[in-house]
Design a protein that fits this description.
alpha/beta, 18 strands, disordered N terminus, binds magnesium ion
Length: 396
């Protein structure tokens, strides 16, 4: 059994009980992590058009990598690690790089484990798969901490600032003028008060604005297609469509100086952050003045622990937080819980599609454009075991 040692973050959480003489006596440390494992899911979906593609592959199903953490006293926490097309690699990172190290650690020492594991694994990369995997672990530990307190997670993060979190419809790629306009109209009819499209051509963006109507926040997510000069020229053409934000217009996404210049010169608010990991990357982003909207993803940045640091940095930098959350596993509920506790509300991203099955019933759906914050212990609701059974897949 591996045990973390040394460092100011190492604190053994001891459970005390009264014996018959009413003397406090240390019984045992019962909060140790006993196992870390994963569950891979693939869930079919429809989005009213041809299947979209990301990362060079088309998506026929939505991919979810759940991270399960058990403790010696019988608690189970659920997390989610970003995966999409890299699910087998992230699963291997959880099971082979993380599990052997954290089993035996104190599950209540969440901040310490985050720091310790980032340090231990830094040579494998401070971005991408390593931090995705650690994100899943961290979310599961917060789930356990809240369950141990018999409270919903938002209570541990500052309390319930709101009972409902405004969602926005994040349309997948259509690359078809009529289809994208049709789905913008549908999303509005279903109660969404803000719409995002993943289109990069002016006609599709113009049609979306027309379908959404004036005054409705319309966001354009481009997924890093342009050079700084191409982005400057496109921004000029997009000015008339009154975009609420232009998301990730420049490749590479970490060219924060170019993003800052684009926002400054065009006057269009810039959003980015879904490809940044840890609060250190967000500090650089904010120091450069790169964005008006920061989009940390709880299943990519390092979990709730890093989200909290990023939120503090964003507040002091006067940057609005708009969490990246186009996923449907424990990471989605973690984002809802996190958003429920923020002093200023941000829109929460919801992929505009219909899933064949949901781990969390109707919690993944908006009601009048907003998500209901669940108040069960931990993330608020346990994942449906039948969905895990029916949609579970083996990663080779
Ligand atoms: Mg995006």
């Amino acid at each position: 059994m591996t045990k973390r040692s040394g460092g100011i973050h190492n604190s053994s959480f001891a459970i005390f009980s009264n014996d018959q003489d009413n003397n406090r006596q240390e019984v045992s440390s019962v909060t140790k992590i006993s196992a870390v494992s994963t569950v891979s899911l693939e869930i079919p979906y429809e989005h009213g058009g041809p299947k979209a593609g990301w990362g060079g592959q088309s998506w026929n199903k939505l991919s979810i990598l759940m991270v399960k953490v058990d403790t010696e006293d019988g608690l189970t926490g659920w997390g989610e690690a970003f995966s999409y097309n890299c699910r087998p690699a992230v699963k291997a990172a959880v099971e082979r790089m993380i599990a052997p190290v954290v089993v035996g650690m104190d599950s209540s020492d969440i901040a310490g484990i985050s720091r310790d594991m980032q340090q231990k694994l830094h040579l494998f990369g401070r971005y991408g798969i390593t931090i995705f995997a650690l994100s899943g672990l961290d979310i599961a530990l917060w789930d356990i901490a809240a369950k141990r307190a018999n409270a919903p997670l938002h209570q541990l993060l500052g309390g319930m600032a709101r009972q409902r979190v405004t969602g926005y419809a994040s349309l997948l790629k259509y690359r078809d003028l009529d289809l994208v306009a049709e789905n913008v109209t549908k999303a509005r009819q279903e109660g969404y008060e803000a719409i995002k499209i993943h289109e990069t051509e002016v006609p599709e963006i113009a049609a979306s604005r027309f379908a959404a109507g004036e005054g409705i926040p319309l966001m354009v997510d481009t997924n890093c297609p342009w050079t700084p000069e191409e982005a400057r020229q496109m921004a000029l053409r997009l000015l008339e469509y009154d975009l609420h934000w232009l998301e990730e217009p420049i490749f590479p996404p970490e060219d924060f100086d170019a993003l800052a210049e684009l926002g400054h010169r065009s006057g269009i608010p810039i959003a980015a952050g879904e490809n940044a990991c840890t609060s250190f990357e967000f500090k650089k982003m904010f120091d450069a003045g790169a964005v008006q909207y920061a989009q940390p993803s709880v299943i990519k940045v390092g979990g709730i622990t890093e989200m909290r640091k990023i939120a503090a940095l964003a507040e002091t930098a006067a940057v609005a937080l708009m969490p990246h959350s186009p996923y449907f596993g424990p990471g989605f509920l973690a984002t809802v819980q996190f958003a429920a506790a923020q002093p200023v509300e941000g829109f929460l991203e919801r992929f505009y599609c219909i899933l064949e099955a949901s781990l969390y019933g109707d919690l993944i759906d908006t009601v009048d454009g907003a998500f209901v914050v669940p108040d069960g212990p931990g993330l608020g609701r346990e994942p449906d075991p039948n969905v895990m059974r029916d949609y579970g897949v083996e990663d080779g």
